[in-house]
Amino acid sequence: MQQDIQILFEKLSEIGIEKPFQSHTHLVLFGDHVNKIYLIKKGGLVLQHVHPETGKERAINFFIPEFHPIATVSQSFVLNEPSKYILKTFTNTTLIEIHRSELNRFLQESKWAPLFQDVGVKTMVEKNELRAHLICLSSLEMLKHLHEHFPQILQNVPSKYIADFLSITPQCLSKLKRDF
User: Fold this and answer.
1) pTM of the model
2) What kind and span of H or E run contains 125?
3) Mode of pairing for the β-strands spanning 36-42 and 93-99
4) What kind and span of H or E run contains 7?
5) What average pLDDT does the segment 141-163 reach?
């Protein structure tokens, strides 16, 4: 299966354009209409929800080559609505940028389309599970959960975004890390 996913990513790379981005580059801003997906080759992205009244941003997902390597703002991409989120790099990042028209052609013509859809469904399930844990677990329990099930996030995502994801300060995150 992993070999098939690697082939899928190679096929997606063929229909997109490889682009380097500097750290903290915004790919999607609040209110944008999204017509691209991104395959992460190197580096990573953070998805931040924007509070509708205060405008406060909060990290709600991460995309790195080892965890959810296909990124977009799904709500805007699928429903063609203005984005309620911000998608940006958190380090120097290399992406394969794929326009909606190229992806649609791929989905209609490629034998790899079912695997792409399977990867998308699996990612959606993982995101929902992760958010359910985030709601139900304490910050320490959630940190332990990430450590046990998604260590690649803790190894590759800056602590300030992990802390934001957990709704705690970076100092509190440091203390929690010492506690386990």
Assistant:
1) 0.93
2) helix 113-136
3) antiparallel
4) helix 2-15
5) 95
